[in-house]
Predict the structure.
Amino acid sequence: MKKIPLYVKILAGMLLGVLFAMIALQFTGGVAFTKNWIKPFGTIFINLLKMIAIPLILASLIKGVSDLKDVSRLSSMGIRTVVFYLFTTVFAVSMGLIIVNIIKPGYAIKEETRTQMLASYGVDAVKKQQEAELQKKAGPLKFLEDIVPDNVVKAASSNTTMLQVIFFALLLGVALILIPEERARPMKSFFDSMNDVILKVIDLIMKTAPFGVFALMAALIAESPGWDIFKALGKYAVSVVSGIAVLLFVFYPGLILLFTRRNPFQFIRQISPAQLLAFSTSSSAATLPVTMECIEKNVGVDNEVSSFVLPIGATVNMDGTSLYQAVAAVFIAQAFGMHLDLQTQLGIILTATLASIGSAAVPGAGMVMLVIVLAQAGIPEAGLALIFAVDRPLDMCRTVANVTSDCTVATIIAHGMGKLEHPSITERS
């Protein structure tokens, strides 16, 4: 009997979760049952993935960097990675601004709907604003300052400080290259072994993925706000999803075809397990283990590249998040009757790009960073409540773009360095 692929099982779990929630909504106490007895299994699944994220980054990045034979290759890979990540992020923000100015979703928001949402989600919106207050007061280079940890053990204790862990792993990996090989061998062997063990733990965790996704989707649907709110924000959601669709089905496949001469549809199919998991968890960090497995086993990217490019991408490369921030900022401005000139919207491109770098790779982080974008453009921060109702489903969509961008850049970097196993279209013909 043919083994059922993981992505098929995950997709089945998602569909069954939606079906279960729809049935639960028809019964008294169905929502409470889902929240109390189903949702915890989804939370456990996400916690398992987050639990392994820091050890994975430490082991894989130190191993990947220390495997490089000279620092010049590391420098070359790093420059290419940063350039491509910045390019895709700026394109994503620009695409979001173009689409939101064409669709103009803010003008579809009615006064009574806006009042209702402010009353329902005002407390949560205020909480998000309070969480972002320190970020607003920080200087423009605060994100660079935050990269260097003052206590690496403390940094490793939280997924929100993953960039600091990456910085430490890079330093340690470079140091292993610079000292004599015989002195570095014991520690290098330790991290090589640790990397193998972590990958096996990931295999064990992923066996529970269909059940975890089922619980996550069931809880999401059962606890969603009224459909009238979704209808009122329909044009805004269409704007975000349209921008993400352009990234997923035009921009990234175009980059794959242009730089690697590969079949872009085959590429999308190869990374689909990571995309589906990203959609269900809304976390690039939680999806990272599966992303690395797909990009190495299915696409053929060498571990030397994937272990360097993907962990960095999961932290600083947030195309979907930056696109959403641009759309959301203009949408809120339109809802308040504000007109944003070209200079202000160019400022949004810069701010959203920098804000996406500082966004933690966990669900909802983009909502906090959005306050920075709103403040830069002079848009009332109270408008955050207007989009809070539909943030969760859109967060799921934009995380797919974040992960797909990471995979695309990793594949392009690997091809440029001759670290891509499978042949291109031109090589096969």
